[in-house]
Amino acid sequence: MINDLTKGAPVKLMLLFSVPLLIGNIFQQFYNIADIIIVGRTLGMQALASVGAVSPLFFLIMFIVVGFTGGFAVITGQRFGAKDYDGVRRSVTMSAILSFAITAVFTVFCAVFMNQLLFLMNVPQEIYKDAFWYIEIVVIGLFVANFYNLLASIIRALGDSLTPLYCLIIASILNILLALLFILEFHWGVPGSAVALVLSQAVSGLLCVWYVKKHFPILHLKKSDWIFDWKEDYKFAMEHLKVGVPMAVQFAILGMSILIIQSVCNTFGADVIASFTAALRIEQIATLPMISFGVALASYVAQNFGAGHFSRIRYGVKRASLINVGLSIVMAVIMHFWGGHFVRIFVGSGNENVVKIAHDYLFISSLFYFFLAQIFIYRNALQGLGRAAIPMLASVGELVMRSFAAVFLAVRISYYGVFFAGPIAWVAASTVLAVGYYTTIKRFIFKTQMKLRQKRS
Hints:
globular, mainly alpha
């Protein structure tokens, strides 16, 4: 159901919007978590390491897809907030055209240079074959991932966070069933889990199309909406790319930083790779409430930006920041006391060295969740305002800090040095984003006040 986020109590709106997002994000993690648990429990630690060794490359690819689709949807949300419904439809078709072209180029590049990428990542020879086929299948299915993420981003931009949730619940269950079928019955091994992932994403995308056709008249596209006039639509395309490209670059930089850390981890052997893989999955779940509230804030800010409600934006961001602080404290406590128990779900009993390494990582990183929580708030607020350059700058700083810390500290204190790379980067990035947001919102409010004074005079 379409929701107007420019009216009503901001905190209540964001909470109602973020709860389905949270549930949806949990189910989306099932795409990866189901693979990890099934692979780790049925195929062993070496198979788990093969998936874990290329997980950062998987994240990098998905981050770029999410960056582009999320950035394009910001324009859709702004048009909706301004009550420009023709502009909403044109934004949808423009986003689809641009996404298709970008995905085609990116898919070909990754497929052609996959061996070189895995070589640069220091993937061990004993797990190379499974790692190669897992990530190659994911890349081949990139159009499917883009298809779903674009639809989900557009639907959320219109204030509906429930529809993507329904699609993800069905697709996540299907992913688990297909992974079990392909691995246990068909004996396809690690590549089977990748096939299950791609097929499940395809189902979620098709479900979104069906639901939009049934319940979203505003998104019923006309033939004229697909006509691209270079002279008239060039500026409109640039408007989308102005937000989408920096967001994609920002997410790509984040993915590259994780890629570098994984490359360093890969030099410490299968136990460390498996530990890092399990720990990252658990951390992704732990931070989902903070991420979900940030995504809800982005839609809230985008619609209110289109309506010109800048004081309302500032109020909503302050409240969202306080909520995320509370969530970061709760998640840090949970990781501190129960992190090891969660790790055993992934690796089973009899792998205590893997459990210890993973729990140590969770303990160290959870101490800095406060800074990570603020990144989700200020990054999404700036993106909703259409100011993607500042988050991109923060991501560059994050890449530099992660890379330096991972390489420099790993030499001195072994793989434990890698565990401090993320927290150091979070402190730097959250500082840049907070300063960027408060400077930007003050400028918008000042301009609004000046316009009101001019009208009165």
